[in-house]
C-alpha cells in the first residue's frame, strides 16, 4: 500500500499487483505546406495526476501560426450561428456541412441546429430568424389613409347626390322635373345615396352583422338604382311608341307599368340574398398569410357562387 513521488516527479507504487495506468501524450500537428508542418506536445492523459485529474492541457503551449490562442474544433466546418441550419455536404464526412439560412417564417435559436422550427400561425420570424414575434392584428380602419380616403369619397358623392335630390324636391312642380318622371327620379337618387354610403360598411373592424350587411345592402340598393334606370328607359321607349296607333302602348304608359320593374327586380334580389344568407352566409375570418407580420381580419364571402 506504499506509494510516493520520487525526486523526478513520477508516482512510484510498491504494490506490484496494482495495474499501472497507461499514459498518453497529446500532440497538436499542423501542416503549413506539403511535407512541411509542426508537431507540438500540448498535454498529457494519465492516472498519476493528483486529485484524480487525468487530463492536462497546457494553454501556454497552444500558440498557433495565426498568433491567437484557440482550441481547435472537432468539426471541419465553422459552427452555424442561430438563424441558420446545417446542410450536409455531399460526398464529405458527416462533420462537414454548410450553413443555410432558415426558410421564411422559420427560426433556429441555437448553434448548429439541424432543422429550423416553424413559427405558429399567429407569429412570424424576425429578420435574423432567431425568434418568433407576435403578429399585429389589423383591419381597414377609418384612421388609415386608405380608410380616410374611401370614407371621404363616399361622403362626398352621397352629399352631391343629396344636393341633386334637394334640387329635384325644390322644383318638383316644374315641367322638366315632371317630365323626368318624379317617382323614378326620387327612387334613383335615394338608392344612389345609399350606394355611395355602403362602402362605409367595409371600413372598421368587421363583425358578423357588418359582414352580412356589406354584401346584402349594396346588392339591394344597387338593384334599385339599375332597375330605376331600366324603368326610365322603358318609359321613354313607350313614350315614342305612343305615336304609333294602338291602345296597348297608351295603356302601359298611362298605368305606370314600368314602375313595377323596381319592386320585381328588388324582390328577385332579396330572394337571392335570402338563399345566400340561409345556406352559406358571410362570416368574420382571419388571413395570416397575405401580409408579413400582420393578421388581417376580413369578411369571408361564405359561398363564392352565391356572391357572384
Structure description:
It is a single chain. The longest helix is centred in the last third of the chain and has 34 residues, at 208-241. The protein contains seven helices and 14 strands. It is an alpha+beta fold and 308 residues long. Strand 3 (24-33) and strand 4 (36-45) form a beta hairpin. The model has no long low-confidence stretch (mean pLDDT 81). The chain has helices at residues 145-170, 175-179, 182-197, 208-241, 247-255, 261-279, 304-307; strands at residues 3-5, 11-13, 24-33, 36-45, 55-57, 84-88, 97-101, 106-107, 117-118, 123-125, 132-134, 136-138, 283-287, 294-300. The protein folds into three domains: 3-61, no CATH class; 84-134, no CATH class; 145-300, no CATH class. Helices cover 37% and strands 21% of the residues. Helix 1 (145-170) packs antiparallel against helix 3. The relative contact order is 0.07. The strands form six sheets. It has a three-stranded antiparallel sheet, with no helix packed on it. It is rod-shaped, with a radius of gyration of 43 Å.
Helix content: 25-40%
Quickly give the structural class.
alpha+beta
H and E string: EEEEEEEEEEEEHHHHHHEEH
- Strand count: 14
Number of helices: 7
- Global mean pLDDT: 81
Number of domains: 3
Q: In percent terms, what proportion of residues is strand?
A: 15-25%
Biggest sheet, spatial arrangement of strands: 3-4-5
Stretches where pLDDT is under 50 for at least 5 consecutive residues are none
So what's the overall shape? rod-shaped
Distance between the termini: 99 Å
How would you sum up the major sheet?
3 strands, antiparallel
Amino acid at each position: 500500500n506504499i506509494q510516493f513521488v520520487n525526486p523526478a516527479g513520477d508516482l512510484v507504487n510498491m504494490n506490484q499487483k496494482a495495474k499501472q495506468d497507461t499514459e498518453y501524450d497529446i500532440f497538436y500537428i499542423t501542416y503549413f505546406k506539403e511535407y512541411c508542418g509542426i508537431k507540438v506536445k500540448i498535454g498529457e492523459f494519465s492516472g498519476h495526476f493528483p486529485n484524480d485529474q487525468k487530463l492536462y492541457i497546457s494553454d501556454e503551449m497552444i500558440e498557433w501560426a495565426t498568433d491567437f490562442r484557440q482550441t481547435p474544433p472537432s468539426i471541419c466546418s465553422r459552427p452555424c450561428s442561430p438563424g441558420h441550419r446545417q446542410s450536409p455536404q455531399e460526398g464529405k464526412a458527416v462533420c462537414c456541412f454548410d450553413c443555410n439560412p432558415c426558410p421564411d417564417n422559420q427560426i433556429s435559436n441555437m448553434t448548429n441546429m439541424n432543422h429550423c422550427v416553424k413559427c405558429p400561425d399567429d407569429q412570424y420570424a424576425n429578420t435574423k430568424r432567431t425568434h418568433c414575434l407576435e403578429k399585429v392584428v389589423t383591419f381597414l380602419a377609418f384612421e388609415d389613409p386608405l380608410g380616410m380616403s374611401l370614407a371621404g369619397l363616399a361622403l362626398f358623392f352621397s352629399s352631391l347626390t343629396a344636393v341633386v335630390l334637394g334640387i329635384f324636391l325644390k322644383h318638383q312642380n316644374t315641367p322638366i322635373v315632371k317630365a323626368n318622371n318624379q317617382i323614378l327620379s326620387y327612387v334613383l337618387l335615394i338608392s344612389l345615396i345609399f350606394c355611395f354610403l355602403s362602402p362605409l360598411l367595409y371600413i372598421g373592424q368587421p363583425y358578423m352583422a357588418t359582414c352580412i350587411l356589406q354584401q346584402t345592402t349594396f346588392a339591394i340598393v344597387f338593384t334599385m338604382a339599375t332597375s330605376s334606370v331600366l324603368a326610365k328607359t322603358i318609359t321613354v321607349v313607350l313614350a315614342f311608341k305612343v305615336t304609333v296607333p294602338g291602345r296597348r302602348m297608351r295603356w302601359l304608359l298611362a298605368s305606370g307599368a314600368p314602375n313595377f320593374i323596381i319592386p320585381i327586380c328588388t324582390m328577385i334580389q332579396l330572394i337571392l340574398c335570402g338563399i345566400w344568407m340561409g345556406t352559406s352566409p358571410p362570416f368574420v375570418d382571419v388571413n395570416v398569410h397575405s401580409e408579413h407580420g400582420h393578421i388581417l381580419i376580413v369578411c369571408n364571402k361564405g359561398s363564392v357562387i352565391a356572391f357572384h
